[in-house]
Design goal:
The complex is a heterodimer of chains A (193) and B (328). With 193 residues, chain A is mainly alpha-helical. Chain A is 75% helix and 0% strand. Chain A is built from nine helices and no strands. The longest helix of chain A has 27 residues. Chain B is α+β, with helices and mostly antiparallel strands and 328 residues long. Helices cover 62% and strands 15% of the residues of chain B. Chain B is flat, with a radius of gyration of 33 Å. The chains are: A mainly alpha (193), B alpha+beta (328).
Chain lengths: 193, 328
């Protein structure tokens, strides 16, 4: 009996259980469940959003905050047809698309305004990589960033984007070829005096 | 994997790191506070409420006015007139029906045809516009190397935004065709509501009857129960129809067709002016010719009820005249 009690305490609750707990409970219990979900995912969500928003921290935070708002609003309607992680990453990808579309529209309207500041403290290599990835079409950019997230498998990335794994791999191959070509061009340009 | 490849992979992994391990800013907390903020934060101002009330009253007034025009012109427009317009079923449940009629039920749909050199990527980007978190989904899709077709179900309020996004998708060269349609299903909904209310009233009466006569003969009880089962079935059918209607109203249908740009078409576009105009003129001519043929066939078939008696009458007149000429 004691052993089983101890093991119950030791076993962490799954994401889905936490979400159900959040949807059903109220007050502190709900808050703790959400806090635990955030502890597990917020850091990675911010990383993904940062990549999708071309390194703009402000936009990434906006997208992630909107993601949490969606999660809170729709927690009761979560049907568990996919895992919680897939669901929340999918929402995050959609929110990043929206945020970037809004940003592009604003930029078009204020085409004379100054360009947004580069993220501070960014290494030259990282800035270069970010610039190259920003040059990819949207679909390929999302695939490249999701597939290179630590701990994200190709199957999970495909589920997040709602495309078959075969399509994901095709896009990934195409994107990597483009990136290599761009890298080579860049090297040649750098080598030319 | 070569050395530069490893470098590139390493850089890519860094792109999705939140400032190399910096503490996340706990955005969930802000989101939670925003979501659980008291309703007053989102409560519309008095001006908005006033305007909304005016719109509702105007719509209600217009509806009552239209309903009592013509034969009911002498009926005073007011409390006595509206139940007549709503029908007998609405009398008992008048309040519920009246509140629903003020909100129009519009089914929206759109068709968009895009031309592109990269069918696959544009088609996939179009499918990805359906946002599952809003209950949107891809109803059907099929794609080949040269063409892709899909039916998306999009939240009605997002229809315009989604069409805008479809037009602006990366790789889209031109929008070949775009159509939008809206159907007003308000009457259908009012009718369904009235029928549900009527059936519910009958069900309540039957239940009262069963409850008030415990000593009734078994045959009578069975007959009432049979009637009850029939009424319940009707109610459930009507409720299913109402749910289906609501779903059609909540989600707009977007038919997306993505086609590869034909080389000839592109050349014609590039050539511009005369060649393009000539093609358009030929296409229009063909379409008008087809319309004329259709109209002629409709005229012949639709008029059969007139043509047949005329032909018979003509035949008899001809025979009579010929007979007279023979015997004259």
């Amino acid at each position: 009996m004691r052993t089983s009690m101890r093991s119950d305490k030791a076993t962490p609750r799954s994401d889905e259980e936490l979400l159900v707990g959040f949807a059903r409970a109220s007050g502190n219990t709900a808050r703790e469940a959400l806090q635990e979900l955030a502890r597990r995912h917020e850091h990675r969500l911010l990383g993904l959003a940062l990549g999708l928003c071309n390194g703009r921290e402000d936009l990434a935070q906006e997208a992630v905050q909107e993601t949490w708002i969606r999660v809170i609003r729709h927690a009761k309607t979560f049907r568990a047809r996919s895992s919680f992680a897939t669901w929340i990453y999918r929402i995050a990808v959609h929110r990043c698309r929206d945020v970037m579309a809004r940003e592009r529209a604003v930029a078009r309207r204020n085409s004379n305004a100054a360009t947004p500041p580069e993220p501070r403290g960014l290494g030259a290599e990282l800035a270069w990589a970010r610039g190259v990835v920003a040059g990819l079409p949207q679909g390929e950019r999302e695939v490249v960033l999701l597939c290179h997230m630590r701990g994200m498998t190709h199957e999970q990335a495909a589920a997040v984007l709602g495309i078959p794994p075969g399509t994901l791999k095709t896009r990934m191959t195409r994107a990597m070829q483009r990136l290599r070509r761009l890298a080579e061009l860049d090297d040649r340009a750098g080598a030319t005096p | 994997m070569t050395e530069p490849d490893r470098d590139l992979e390493g850089q890519l992994e860094h792109l999705t790191r939140w400032n190399g391990g910096k503490e996340a800013p706990a955005l969930w907390r802000t989101a939670l506070e925003a979501s659980s903020a008291p309703a007053r934060a989102r409560m519309p101002s008095r001006v908005v409420l006033g305007l909304a009330a005016m719109v509702v009253l105007t719509a209600l007034g217009a509806w009552i006015g239209i309903g009592t025009l013509g034969s009911a012109r002498s009926t005073p427009v007011g409390a006595d007139a509206s139940p007549m317009a709503r029908g007998p079923a609405a009398d008992a449940f008048g309040q519920a029906s009246a509140s629903d009629t003020t909100v129009r039920a519009i089914q929206r749909s759109a068709t968009i045809e895009l031309r592109t050199a990269e069918v696959r990527s544009v088609f996939e980007a179009a499918l990805a516009l359906a946002d599952p978190s809003l209950g949107e989904y891809v109803q059907s899709s099929s794609a080949t190397e040269v063409r892709g077709e899909a039916v998306l179900r999009i939240a009605s309020h997002r229809l315009d935004a989604v069409l805008r996004m479809l037009r602006g998708l990366e790789g889209v060269e031109s929008v070949h065709r775009e159509e939008q349609a809206a159907t007003d299903a308000t009457d259908q909904r009012i009718d369904l509501d009235a029928r549900i209310a009527n059936e519910s009233r009958i069900e309540a009466e039957l239940l009262d009857l069963v409850g008030s006569r415990p000593d009734a003969p078994l045959a009578d009880v069975l007959r009432v129960r049979e009637a009850l089962a029939e009424v319940r079935l009707n109610i459930e059918l009507l409720q299913a129809q109402r749910a289906s209607l609501n779903e059609r109203v909540a989600l707009a249908t977007v038919r997306v067709r993505v086609e590869r740009v034909r080389v000839r078409e592109r050349a014609a576009d590039d050539a511009g002016g005369f060649v393009h105009d000539l093609g358009v003129a030929f296409a229009r001519g063909g379409r008008d010719f087809a319309r004329s043929i259709t109209a002629f066939v409709e005229f012949l078939v639709g008029g059969l009820i007139v043509w047949v008696p005329l032909a018979i009458a003509g035949f008899f007149v001809y025979r009579t005249l010929r007979w007279r000429a023979t015997w004259a």
